[in-house]
Amino acid sequence: MPQWPHDPASDLTPLVCRIDTDHGGQTPLRLRISRPTHPDLHGAGVHMFSGLPHKNQALAVRWLPDCSVGLLACCGAATRVVVVGARARALMTSLPSCRFIVGAFIHPGFCQSVLGQAGDVLFEQAQALEALWDGPRVTRLVHELSQHQDTDGALMALEQVLAEGLTRETACSLVTDACRLIEADNGQTALPAIAARLGCSERHLRREFRHHTGHSVKGIARCLRLRAVLSAIAELEHEALGWRDLAAEYGFSDQSHLIAEFRQMLGITPSALAAALKLGATIQSGMLITAETNQQTA
Predict the structure, then answer these.
(1) How far apart are alpha carbons 51 and 33 in whole angstroms?
(2) Domain contains 140
(3) Using CA atoms, how far apart are residues 160 and 201, in angstroms rounded to an integer?
(4) Has residue 95 been placed in a domain?
(5) Domains in the chain: how many in total?
(6) How distant, in Å, are the alpha carbons of 41, 265, 297 from that of 211?
(7) Stated pTM of the model
């Protein structure tokens, strides 16, 4: 059985979603990220989140490239729960109007222990929770969520259901440890060096990554490097952005390489991102949040 860290993946706060709303001009939906309060989820590779849409508006969620898996519940008259796997490029999901949303981010290496499915099965897929869990379990979760009028109560209900289904023996600390090493060097550490640090073969590390995340080791490195760039852009939000300097600092061969990576993984260019920030978009807790109207996915 893998050794579980006391505070799992606390430095791997996921780069998860960009939220577009159909109510242009209003303050973007803001999400609150928190560690689980349920004791059985401590060390289970999970972060919780919650948010209140503006005036019960419908949402389009752009999940940015990442190595984590997201579970999102849209709570209202007809509660809906979706699961979005790890992904190499942005992925869109649509949600109906609701009172609030709650959910969980499952970090790499813990998907099977928390959701009962390996990461490679979920990779780049967005599907209803009914496709993964048996009917009675989903029905119970939806019923519990529907009973609450606030995010705190709904989060507790979601944590309880997740904790009851937890199977710790299927967690993979090798993947989590490798992600930490990759992140520490902004995705620039080569596979042989990572495998050597972890005391395993390159082949075994590749196989574990594919099974538990769906990503290749290089794919995760790209996601983590992109997240580092976005975090830097967020910090420079009100300053002049030097794309050439950012490209050099984070290991891109040149500015053109950085722009191409943005296009392929996010569907937007760095300059388009900068323009969105000037119009009120924010990057918070690793998420790019905007208030665009009927924006199409690139």
Answers:
(1) 9
(2) yes
(3) 38
(4) yes
(5) 1
(6) 22, 21, 28
(7) 0.81
